[in-house]
Amino acid sequence: MTIEDCRSFAIGAGERAFTDESTTEKGPRDRTFHVKHLKLEVSFDDEERKVKGTSTLVLIPINDGLKSLELDAVDMTISRVTDGDGRHLDFEVADGKILVRLLRAYKAGQEFQLAVEYEAQPKAGLFFISPDKSYPNKPFQIWTQGESEDNKRWFPCYEAPNDRMTTELIVTVKSKYSTVSNGRLAEVKTDAKRGMKTYRWVQDIPHVNYLVTLVVGEFDFQEEKVDGIPVQYYVPKGKAKFIPLAFQNTPDMLEYFAGVTGLKYPWAKYAQVVVQDFTFGGMENTTCTTLTEYCLHDEKARPNYMADSLVAHELAHQWFGDYITMKSWGHAWLNEGFASYFDPLWWEHKFGRDEFHQRMLDTAKEYFKEDAEHYRRPIVTHKYKEADDMFDGHTYQKGACVLHMMRYVLGDDLWWKAIKHYVHKKGQGIVETTDFKEAIEESTGRALDWFFNEWLYKGGHPEFDISWSYDDKSKLIVLTVKQKQDTKDGTPLFKMPITIEIATKKRLWRENLDVEKAEHTYFIPSPDRPQMVLFDPDNWILKKLTFEKQKDELLHQIAHAENVIPRIQACEGLAKIPYDKAVFEALKKSLTSDKFWGVRAAAAKALGEMATAEAKEILLSEGIKQQDSRVRRAVVDSLGNFRGDEEVFERLCAIYRSDKAYYVVSGAAIALGKLRDPKAFEVITKNMDRPSHADVIVRASLDGLSELREPRAVQVCMDHTKYGNPEMVRMAAANSLGKLGHYLEDKKDDIREHLVRLLNDTNFRTKLGAVNGLVALGDAAAIPKLAAVDRYDPLGMVRREARKAVKKIQESHAEKAKKVDAQKDIESLKDENRDLKARLAKLESKVDGLAGGKKGKKGEKQPR
Ligand SMILES: [Zn+2]
């Protein structure tokens, strides 16, 4: 599953513990039977939003003497339970379960059948989407979302991931609708008199309950064959023109994953179905991935947004997650960590190593954010409040980084050998983390217990502090490596092999070191003084790195490091050096001529932090001329640092009004807000309501208005939360409203009341926006309402965010006084710094003018 929206809610300092002390361990579920087959017959009452049908289960007892059993069924009306001979069975319904009494005791292995007739009006698991007065263009759709444990809300079943079954889904719908489900379409029957059609879908390869899916609606459809497999694309009617950009790389991905896993795509078909108002980014149901409509985009969104990442992630799940499935949610990284790594791996194959390194850098950043702002936990843990809690930055991003390191430790040949063995051995199986460790050991001879202990069963990451010096007499580099992380919370000292790259005038070479202790000193022979020493030059290790370097070394690094990551790190290092001509020239050169866009963007960011007149000039000239809109976006973001500069303001207004790329315009909206020029209110509100990919321009404009801290923005945000606006806009507006309320004391009560009302909204994204807005507002009066959401909301993700919100508000409330003082200090320091920089820039221009340098005109471009 891909979670696109909720991760962006992870803002602000908050809880450090993943769970409360009272949380109990949740291992795999005990079983008394195996479900061999599920036959599900359903039809719908569209008006009443009801599903009714019969769930028939073929069961096999695991032990002798099975006389009764429990099935999962939440909020259902059960009319009848019968056995294979049609005899009625006694049953009781309580706490989301049906207790069925069998007519006799069954022996282990003795197959029997149960049929449950039921009706439900699900609040989660199955969703009805339909047009209304406020959204007349919404299509009618029904779609389901099983993971983590919501399929029990629309059919009686065994709801846990530790059992695989074949399934058969027989669904009757109005003739105008088509259906998509798991496996192959075995039969379609038409009842012309009633205007109905019945579809029978069969999944012959066993899969687990949360992967059962159904989508109903009117779709544009395209199909192609890849290696004999039907590859299908379903998009809402009228949107076929978006299919190529979103899905053009699916065949290449399918072939790539088949090649590297050694397993041809194992299922009957691969359908990608785009639905309205989907609650996640994507969901990897076997043979049939459901995707959010926001994956559809046009050229103006690219390359800032490309759907390939989402498409690759979900497709990789067909191997990791679907064909091999984790036994319990505590091992969710075996699904999500793999999908989150095989997505960048495909980028490496398709777009090369630079792009791959950039993606892994971004992946690590997401994990570090969660670790710093929320909590630290082992990747494998069974202490969570509910299964949805496991779908976080530790499971996804850290899981991906850990696989990346495993590849480094094993080397490419053994890594791929191990992956192929694991897929071959565990295909169609249920796995836990040790199964993967064993597969590596069997196939490569390498026992990685130490690695699994550090990275999977313990939390945290190394925080390295590195320094080096050169001894001219002994011709030795003295390299000190320290691990500074606090180990009190169970974070270990990490044992890792580390590569060092050394460049002298005459030679470039690498050394391999084994790091294990809190501190090591290495003596490395070198005939000359190094120009550059790189620690982990290819950035394999998930780490925080403090490596204070001299200016000359950073200048060498930005120009000569082969890997893009040290070049990006050099930009970050150079940004910290007080004004220096050589530093400026190096960053300017990187911005305009580095061959990789990520380095050019990092140089733009560094120039923005420099914030001198020269930096401004280059950002406004060469910077905003950059062809790649990802670099232009970084330039625009940097311009937000030039508060009080009229020229920057005017130029940002022009970019906001007319740049072709949505994500450059959206960056300009936020940067305009950060400049806090009151004139920005008019500019933004006049131009914000433009169509764009996933409404990114409107959303960023609302964010820009909150950055502006302008009282008039409150009403604009409130208007944009109204029912009838696109859900993404409503979510962003609620969030911005909370941010505004944080700064506008006299509006706080109105804003809180408005946001609390939105907690009852029917749209889950709007609710998430309100939850997040209330966190930004930081008003303790909202806590009881948020606690009620945590308790009663049907969607696990909403409950989880509400729970986190309560904690954050409580904490921020306690520390409020302290924080206000600290914030004031920071603001005044920032202002002082800005003044000093402006004065320095003036002086520097004068000096340049006196020297009669080639940039004699620069005096005209001083900040006003
Ligand atoms: Zn996933």
What is the C-alpha radius of gyration, as a whole number of Å? 29 Å
Average per-residue pLDDT, rounded, comes to 94
Q: Which residue ranges are poorly predicted, with pLDDT under 50 across at least 5 consecutive positions? A: 5-15, 851-864
Question: Based on helices, strands and strand pairing, what is the structural class?
Answer: alpha+beta
Quaternary state reads: single chain
Number of helices: 26
List ligands, each type once.
zinc ion
Q: Could you give the count of β-strands?
A: 28
What sort of overall outline do the alpha carbons produce when their principal axes are compared? globular
Strand content of the residues, in percent? 15-25%
Most strands sheet = 7 strands, mixed
Biggest sheet strand order reads 4-7-2-1-10-13-12
First-residue to last-residue Cα separation: 51 Å
Helix content: 40-55%
